[in-house]
Q: What sequence folds into this?
């Protein structure tokens, strides 16, 4: 007789925790979201959530952003916990929260797995994941890993269903608190904008994205910026002097000078990456937008797509403003999709595939 398992997924973001309870059929039984988390109160949040859950949990599934070369789902034994502790040094913003939560929740027993954001990008070829540093450092793991892999994995699975084929080619744009783009060829990641850490690539809400390493060294050595500023006090926040993207968009539409500068730089970087990935394909099935900004900001989508006319992409204004699933014009050479990603479902699915 098939025994129905209950899984609890914990999706740790930089400012929130999303908690969802699934059964073995991937039906959602309960869902909780904690916003604007204070890391000092993490254990209190977890106790509060655990007390509210009405279901007996068999398996805990944790999102862990940086997994280096490790595959997931990753069983969280004592030995494997020590591996995760080492990874905190590489990505303190996200991994610190997840490892603390994992260690705390393991004290209650049950089975625990980690699902890594880096796992999806293990198919990126060497020429795309290598930095121009000593080859011995590359062999030790100092290379580009990429992130948002759980989201991109979900998008690939959904687009396979929608397009009715196994091998799909996409340029996928995930815009949220963190932002990245992924080139997906034959359903596999072949390049992505984030690198060794989630700091590389696009300008983000509080992260700077690509920067000349020489300038970064100078700013750090001159005490003009701290390593924590790179995660929390750069990007759109510092360019436009705003607290979040909603505020930026409002100011941009009102013609605020700093908001215009920030929005134009944000969009330019996205378009630049799209162009560099476009030449990697013989044919594309489409472009996808996802993440809080990608799903909800018709302004950003319009600004980005309006700069893609040279490759034959045209947006339907009405569909875009309505946040429709497909937002391109009928005559557009490429389809443009808006995907509502469910990372928690993807995490649960991956664990169910191995148990």
A:
């Amino acid at each position: 007789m098939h025994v129905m398992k209950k899984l609890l997924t914990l999706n740790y973001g930089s400012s929130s925790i999303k908690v969802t309870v699934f059964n073995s059929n991937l039906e959602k039984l309960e869902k909780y979201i904690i916003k604007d988390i204070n890391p000092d109160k993490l254990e209190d949040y977890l106790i509060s959530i655990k007390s509210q859950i009405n279901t007996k949990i068999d398996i805990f599934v944790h999102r862990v952003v940086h997994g280096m070369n490790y595959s997931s789902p990753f069983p969280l034994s004592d030995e494997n916990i020590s591996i995760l502790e080492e990874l905190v040094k590489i990505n303190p913003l996200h991994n610190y929260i997840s490892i603390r939560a994992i260690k705390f929740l393991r004290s209650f027993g049950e089975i625990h797995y980690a699902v890594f954001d880096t796992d999806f990008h293990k198919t990126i070829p060497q020429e795309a994941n290598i930095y121009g540093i000593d080859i011995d450092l590359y062999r030790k793991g100092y290379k580009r890993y990429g992130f948002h892999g759980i989201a991109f994995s979900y998008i690939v699975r959904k687009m396979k269903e929608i397009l009715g084929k196994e091998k799909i080619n996409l340029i996928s744009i995930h815009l949220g608190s963190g932002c990245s783009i992924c080139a997906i060829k034959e359903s596999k990641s072949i390049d992505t904008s984030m690198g060794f850490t989630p700091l590389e690539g696009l300008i983000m809400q509080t992260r700077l994205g690509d920067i000349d390493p020489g300038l970064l060294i100078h700013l750090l050595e001159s005490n003009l910026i701290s390593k924590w500023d790179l995660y929390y006090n750069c990007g759109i926040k510092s360019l436009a002097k705003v607290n979040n993207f909603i505020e930026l968009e409002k100011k941009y539409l009102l013609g605020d000078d700093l908001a215009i500068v920030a929005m134009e730089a944000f969009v330019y970087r996205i378009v630049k990456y799209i162009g560099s990935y476009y030449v990697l394909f013989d044919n594309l099935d489409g472009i996808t937008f996802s993440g809080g900004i990608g799903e909800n900001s018709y302004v950003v989508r319009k600004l980005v797509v309006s700069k893609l006319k040279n490759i034959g992409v045209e947006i339907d204004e009405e569909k875009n403003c309505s946040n429709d699933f497909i937002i391109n014009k009928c005559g557009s050479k490429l389809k443009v999709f808006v995907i509502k990603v469910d990372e928690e479902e993807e995490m649960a699915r991956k664990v169910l595939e191995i148990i």
User: Anything to note?
Assistant: The mean pLDDT is 95.
